[in-house]
Fold this protein.
Amino acid sequence: MEGRRSHSRDRDRDRHDRDRRRRRSRSRSCSRRGGYDGHRSGDHDGRRRYNDRRGSSGGSGGPRSGRSRSRSRSRSREEKHRRHRNDRNDHHSDRRRGQQQQQQQQQQRWRRFPDRFVGQTSSSRGGSSTRGGGSGGSGSGSSSGIAPVFDFTEDARRRSKVENKRKPGHFQANGVIRISESEPPRRNSSKPDRRELLYKLRKECRTSNDIMQCLKDLGQLRDIKEYSMAITAWGRRKEWGHALGLLEEMQRRGVQPNVITWNAAISACEKGAQWERALELFEEMQRRGLQPNVITWNAAISACGKGAQWERALGMLEEMQRRGLQPNVITWSAAISACEKGAQWERALEMFEEMQRRGLQPNVITWSAVISSCQQSGSLDQAIDLFLEAQSIGIYSLWLNPATIDLHDLPLSVARAAVASVLADVSLQPRNRQYFDTSISTTLTIITGRGNRSENNEAVLRPGILAMLRSEYPELDSTINRENGGRIEVMATKK
């Protein structure tokens, strides 16, 4: 019996010690957190004792003053953390905004002067946030922003930093060369560098004299890329002789032309109406082991079209498909233009329908070619129907107001079909009555232009449209405007 009592006392003592240790640990944890979380475990009595103890030690605040102070401290701590978070987010947003501006500047510089970035990776071209110095220590960039970020080697980056640091008006911050507002950047020389000359040759040279001067400033061309750009520039001016001369020169110097170079030379002969030389270059390219791409086939087919060799053009189209190449819109347009030059309007219509069955949408060149082929072959009604269909889907914009049409951007054959679609009869009633309203005006004004934008400033539309009106509509009074020679006025009254 005595043993049972002693065992019971030991068990109660152990339980009492365990409860005391548990209360002590709870007290420590809640003092560290600034409050009591006994409600989470359901210890409501301990919570009440804790609040009473905090209230008694707090003075005049009562039993809930300690709890209030704990909440106020928690709120202040949360407010501090919130302010810290906001400051950190603002800092990161400003940093990202600055990086985006640097990337945009670098992308703009890459699009304008791509040759300055030779040897860079695609990520650096696309505007990666790589830190570097200014462009060769010349202090390039706008006076109010950050200079474009370029990807240099370590030695070049170190040299650029030292050179820019010595220049007045420049200072360095965080690895980026900035230009002060006080002194704008200055060029080292008045002569443009080689990259700017190549950009001018590719984009800005519009006349033969401009190309000659640019090539003179460049001096000797160095690689395939420069030769291809020069040949392309001569091709735009239809100077096929200069283009072939550069092709022979680069071969003499041991620079082997690639597919891009051959495409530029063939296109130059095509624009110069030298279809035989274009086909010779096409065959020579294949003998050298180079496979022509879609651009090569398009240039060759267009050359056949310029020479009215519609049978060869159609044969090359079939050969292209046998080799596994899919013709695009430009290919079909070139083939239809070849049929137009060869007065094969039925074949042109068949190819036009075949192109649409294959899911290709005709562009303005395709529509102009098929309309011109029908108009020149005497199928005027078919040409009018095609023109009205193209006008309904927005290919041509003809009417400026209910009494004025503009033929500036139309070829002569398409312009004739456009005028014929308007002049349905002698009373000037168009097929689409929503356009020309005879109740408003009885005079139809046709804008043809004076030929200022034509080749050699020769007027083509005005004499062609005027001859058409006087031959096919002799009952109408068609006269040239005395104040503006680029306008033809057609009166609804009979002669």
Observations:
- The chain has a mean pLDDT of 75.
- The two ends are 146 Å apart (CA to CA).
- The chain is about 60% helix and 5% strand.
- Strands lie at 170-173, 176-179, 399-401, 404-406, 443-447, 476-480, 487-494.
